[in-house]
């Protein structure tokens, strides 16, 4: 995608580093997801935490997606961007009273409730405001998502959701919460999941818990199975759009439900990761005794994933290949931390000061996780017109 002169000419005029968003690709991805979901009557709430850039949000909102939020500010941002409050979910283990009150006043679709105590607090606040709170109870299904341990969320040892052992109590507390209306069950087992068997196991657990509630006379209208579908970090050009058909097919096949029960998803990464790249300029090249270093002007402050999760992102030089010899570079940033490294032994044509590189698949959990550490400048972005 970046090995052409047009991109190089366009980017050379811009101050680096910056995020580049390909809104055409985003649109194609959204259309593919929507088509596959609509066909099966499924609902998608876009997980704002993956990227809340306004151009991205505007496009997602215009396609009719709902929003999945994890803070009061994300709820407010969704409302400001025109998302329908009746399509907003609000998750997170630590919602403050202020955040709960604001969401109640907006009459959002549902709170994903993560503990019994939280349910009682939501009930109290809703009673005080004279409203009813719609909630989905987040159950921790104890499923190993086989992903990085920092982004697995559905195991007993994780802080998320109500564990099996507490469900009996949760159900009885719920019956006493007059201002709370249980609309559904919520699950989310982790992120960057490419093995469809993980989602199949999730369906089995969802069926079990839905039946458990129904046997006790509680009807479950909404089955919210969270997000987590992964993307191809190794080959972004070969696989720019995730296989939404295969993903939704698993739920279509294995989730037991009647025609009135709704299935909801909270996709983040799968929708926005491939449309974003971090563009950075080579400041210096340096050859150590054992290594060639490419020192670029973006750092872990602009894209934290490699430093935080040892995540792989494909790195390319922007512009045409002129047949230079290929070297193995450690691509590092300017931050005073050894972990400030985007990739080790990255094969690239011999680079010069001033060359531009693209760090691919950075549209999800990139710009949103940027920090001002080292008093870095606020990260810029550019985007292609749709
Ligand atoms: N729903 C819930 C309850 C979540 O916790 C998450 C992500 C999502 C939905 C969206 O998941 P996705 O479809 O994007 O996988 N910063 C990490 C990822 C953290 C994911 C946190 N939860 C990374 O850069 O890999």
Brief rundown of the structure:
This protein has eleven helices and 16 strands. It has helices spanning 5-12, 23-39, 54-62, 72-80, 97-106, 116-129, 167-176, 196-215, 244-254, 269-272, 305-309; strands spanning 18-21, 43-47, 66-69, 88-90, 110-113, 133-138, 180-186, 222-224, 262-265, 276-287, 292-296, 315-317, 326-332, 341-349, 356-359, 380-383. The protein starts with a helix and ends with a strand.
How would you explain this protein's 3D organization?
The chain has two domains: 5-19 and 274-383, Lyase, Ornithine Decarboxylase, Chain A, domain 1, CATH 2.40.37.10; 23-273, Alanine racemase (TIM Barrel, Alpha-Beta Barrel). 30% of the residues lie in helices and 22% in strands. It has eleven helices and 16 strands. It has helices at residues 5-12, 23-39, 54-62, 72-80, 97-106, 116-129, 167-176, 196-215, 244-254, 269-272, 305-309; strands at residues 18-21, 43-47, 66-69, 88-90, 110-113, 133-138, 180-186, 222-224, 262-265, 276-287, 292-296, 315-317, 326-332, 341-349, 356-359, 380-383. The strands form two sheets. Strands 1, 10, 11, 12, 13, 14, 15 and 16 form an eight-stranded mixed sheet that branches. A hairpin with a 4-residue loop joins β10 and β11 (292-296). α4 (72-80) runs parallel beside α5 (97-106) and α8 (196-215) packs parallel to α9 (244-254). The longest helix has 20 residues, at 196-215. It is elongated. The two termini are 17 Å apart. The chain binds ligand LLP. Ligand LLP binds at residues 47, 50, 68, 91, 151, 153, 188, 191-192, 226-229, 266-270, 305, 309, 365.
């Amino acid at each position: 995608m970046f090995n052409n002169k047009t991109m190089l000419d366009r980017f050379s005029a811009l101050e680096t580093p910056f995020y580049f968003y390909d809104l055409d690709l985003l649109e194609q991805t959204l259309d593919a997801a929507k088509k596959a979901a609509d066909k099966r009557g499924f609902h998608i709430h876009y997980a704002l935490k993956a990227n809340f850039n306004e151009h991205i949000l505007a496009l997602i909102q215009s396609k009719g997606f709902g929003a999945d939020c994890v803070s009061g500010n994300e709820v407010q941002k969704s409302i400001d961007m025109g998302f329908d409050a009746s399509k907003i979910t609000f998750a997170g283990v630590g919602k403050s009273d202020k955040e709960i009150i604001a969401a109640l006043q907006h009459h959002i679709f549902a709170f994903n409730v993560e503990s019994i105590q939280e349910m009682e607090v939501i009930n109290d606040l809703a009673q005080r405001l004279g409203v009813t709170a719609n909630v989905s109870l987040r159950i921790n299904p104890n499923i190993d998502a086989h992903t990085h341990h920092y982004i697995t969320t559905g195991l007993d040892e994780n802080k998320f959701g109500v564990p099996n052992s507490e469900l009996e109590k949760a159900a009885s507390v719920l019956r006493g919460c007059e201002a709370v209306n249980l609309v559904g069950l919520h699950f989310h087992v982790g992120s960057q999941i490419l093995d469809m068997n993980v989602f199949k196991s999730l369906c089995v657990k969802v069926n079990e818990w839905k039946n458990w509630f129904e046997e006790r006379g509680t009807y479950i209208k909404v089955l919210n199975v969270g997000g987590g579908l992964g993307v191809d970090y190794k080959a972004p050009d070969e696989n720019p759009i995730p296989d939404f058909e295969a993903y939704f097919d698993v739920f279509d096949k294995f989730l037991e439900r009647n025609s009135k029960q709704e299935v909801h998803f909270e996709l983040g990464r799968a929708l926005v990761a491939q449309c974003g790249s971090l563009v950075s300029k080579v400041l210096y090249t340096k050859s150590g005794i054992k290594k060639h270093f490419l020192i670029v002007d973006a750092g872990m402050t602009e894209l934290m994933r490699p430093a935080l999760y040892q995540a792989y992102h494909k790195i390319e030089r922007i512009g045409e290949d002129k047949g230079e010899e290929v070297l193995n570079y450690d691509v590092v940033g300017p931050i005073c931390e050894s972990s400030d490294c985007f990739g080790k032994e990255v094969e690239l044509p011999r680079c010069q000061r001033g060359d531009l590189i693209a760090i691919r698949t950075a549209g999800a959990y990139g710009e949103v996780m940027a920090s001002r550490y080292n008093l870095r400048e606020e990260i810029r972005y550019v985007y292609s017109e749709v």
